[in-house]
Amino acid sequence: MLEDTVKKILQARVYEAAHETPISPAPFLSRRLNNQILIKREDLQPVYSFKVRGAYNKMAMLSEEQKAKGVIAASAGNHAQGLALSAKKLGVKAVIVMPRITPDIKVQAVRARGAKVVLRGDAFSEALAHALELIEEHGYTYIPPFDDIDVVAGQGTVGMEILRQQTGRLDAIFVPVGGGGLIAGVAAYVKYLRPEVKVIGVEAEDSACLKAALDAGERVVLDQVGVFAEGVAVAQIGEVPFSIARDLIDDVITVNTDEMCAAVKDIFEDTRAVSETSGALSLAGLKKYIQQTGAEGETLLCINSGANTNFDRLQHIAERTELGEQREAILAVTIPERPGSFKKFCRTIGKRMVTEFNYRYADPEDAHIFVGVQVKPGGDDRAELIRKLREAGYPVEDLTDNELAKLHIRHLGGGRPKEHFEEQVYRFEFPERPGALMNFLTHLPADWNISLFHYRNHGAAYGRVLVGMQVPNGDRGHVEEYFDRIGYRYWKETDNAAYRLFMA
User: If we measure between CA atoms, which residue out of 44, 120, 107 comes closest to residue 81?
Assistant: First the structure.
């Protein structure tokens, strides 16, 4: 299979639509990490993503009869744009079915390249079901985003270019993983020609379908998939990619939201490219690899797989970057509610930069403050700061890794309620579309009272929402049954330390 895949990569017809992209050095990052860091610039493709390679190669293999009937795909991301451009180049009708929550910038980009866009459903599964109905009705050919050998071969030309361009030392290539088409193609080509070069997959920790499959020894379906890195939000690794990659890759690394945001900043500082979060995923994994292994003096390459991000998301990415670099500690600190306490607290912190300070009077004895403090990367300095504060007599809760604190508490005003009442608190991901909130409220019993609500638009397909509810005693054991019927992802936060300290 390996030799057959490499032959298909060598024969792939991608350059009628795609460009051979350069490898950019990352001098600032290289100095900081004591390794030579290289970035393969797939963000420079005509559709700002590598996806055009696989889409065009698959379409080029179609018969004239198939081309005459047209092609179709269900996609909310980069595959849609790659297919639209490929169809335009080949003079083929293309229909793209997208969920209604797809950001308008992506819808317009597909339409601008001549494809017909059909908006259907709130999730990819609904869009896919409608695409299959249209295939039955019109005889379109479905162009899959990753689970096809011709798509894999098209993506594998990224690996071919890497070895042609980087002829000297190359210790490891870090590849972002969604459905697996890119890593399967890159691993096949690289391992066939230079088996000593490590090929390491990088996944978002809340959509790590390849890691789950490798752990289980077979493909599995994730119960839930995070959507922050939309380009890799896949619940199951592709059958074809998994059959190729499972025995070729050296490791899989998972990274979190903050680490991806930090990598977006790193790419910008060295190349001035604004990567999407899934595009910066591989660099986040590269940095984690160095942290875990202590690698020095190596030549490490990551693939910037795309730059299709909403401008609205940049504020949220910037907010999370310092946390991803471990340069900011988010702490809940209790200080006495009396004059001079804040000055004494700042004196204890010393010359560190205070990045954020939130406080509201709530109790005559104690003041709970939400504070951000600049620290050195690595975690040791944060631990030293917490130790110093506790030795000075301050109760401290470390909220640096607390999603509720970072997404909601730091932006909430209003303080605590004047009197105690029982409240159930949950964090949700709502689809960004009209009617999403009404759908949520409609499914709740009429005698539940909304006691807390916080939402911020992050420019993504899903919004993050914090909801507090006063639930009658008889319903408290069945709260999550109602939420399951709605179908939105949720997390219970009633016992979260950030909520207890600042809102309860």
Answer: 107
Confidence of residue 121 (pLDDT cuts 50, 70, 90): confident
- Interstrand relation of 94-98 and 71-74 (parallel, antiparallel or unpaired): parallel
Which entry of 40, 51, 265, 406 is annotated as an active-site residue? 51
Contact assessment for residue 348 and residue 333, using Cβ atoms and an 8 Å cutoff: no
Beta bridge partners of 72: 95, 142
pLDDT in tens, 1-31: 899 999 999 999 999 999 999 999 999 999 9
Residue 265 a catalytic site member: no
Q: What is the C-alpha to C-alpha distance for residues 109 and 107, in angstroms, rounded to an integer?
A: 5
* Domain architecture of the chain: domains with CATH: 2-49+148-318 (3.40.50.1100), 51-142 (3.40.50.1100), 326-401 (3.30.70.260), 419-502 (3.40.1020.10)
List 49, 75, 282, 305, catalytic entry = 305
DSSP letters, 300-345, are EEEEE-B----TTHHHHHHHHHHHHTT-EEEEEEEEESSTTHHHHH
Tell me the pTM: 0.77
Strand order of the sheet with strand 462-470?
449-456, 462-470, 424-431, 489-492
Q: Going edge to edge, which strands form the sheet with 251-255?
A: 23-25, 36-41, 299-304, 172-176, 198-204, 251-255
The answer to whether 406 is a known catalytic residue is no
- Mean pLDDT for the stretch of residues 185-199: 98
